[in-house]
Amino acid sequence: MGMRMPWLQRFLRRSSTRHRRQECRPSAHGRASGRRRVSFSPRRLESTFDAADMRLFHFSEDGQIDQFTPRSVRQPALRKPGQEWLNSPLVWAIDADHQRLYLFPRECPRIVVWAHSASSHDDRMAWMGDLPCGVQAVAFIERAWVDRHRSGSIFRYEFPVHSFECIEDAGMFVSRSVVRPLGCERIANLPHALKDSHTELRVVDSLLPLRGVWNSTLHASGIRLRNASGWA
């Protein structure tokens, strides 16, 4: 028996190593694969890299929230197969790079557009034009909302990241558990904050002519469009 123990120990170590490698192997849906996702698999912020570099925010008109409890969306959205659970009780957050989407009064209808690696030059010029150096996105609002955007304010809560899952959609993250914010600050100058997020604000009479941007190669996010003139 004494002669067999070293062999047995080596075998157990090799088996344990293989098991750990299988557990840590990147999924085809994870960041490491670089492949096009064919199904949905939320990714938790568990690695040291994610936790160190990620900041998550939640925007609200209420600056007195001590904790955020998961709740269902008010108007359930039509989800892709496998994503129906996103209509269930959750706490939502946005990463720092995409906070430009919420630097508006809550009910302000807006369309925010930006290019990515697969965007064509023609689409960039047609919908965004020549952008000043450093500008990464264009936000469109209707003229009727300009004064409210200038005079409005919003509270930005920062969240701890450990319970959140990335849903791979324009910087959005969700948590299935109660979240206590790390802090809260009031953003009083929304146009200035938007500019600081490398976003150009453009005022239009109507958002309706922008419907076609979703048929382009650009990314477009539309929020509170039910409040846009003639959109419904």
Word description of this protein:
The structure is a single chain. The protein is α+β, with helices and mostly antiparallel strands. It has one domain. It is 20% helix and 22% strand. It is built from five helices and eleven strands. The protein has a seven-stranded antiparallel beta sheet with strand order 1-7-8-3-2-6-9, with no helix packed on it. A four-stranded mixed beta sheet has the order 10-5-4-11, with helices on one face. A hairpin with a 5-residue loop joins strand 7 and strand 8. The chain is globular.
Which class do the helix and strand fractions yield? alpha+beta
Number of helices: 5
What's the end-to-end separation, in Å? Answer: 80 Å
**In sequence order, what are the helices and strands, one letter per element?**
HEHEEEHEHEEEEHEE
Tally of distinct domains? 1
The neighbouring-strand order within the major sheet is 1-7-8-3-2-6-9
Q: What best-fitting shape do the alpha-carbon axes yield?
A: globular
> How much strand?
15-25%
Largest sheet: 7 strands, antiparallel
How much helix, percentage-wise, in residues? 10-25%
Low-confidence stretches: 1-41, 45-49
What is the radius of gyration computed over CA atoms, rounded to a whole number of angstroms? 22 Å
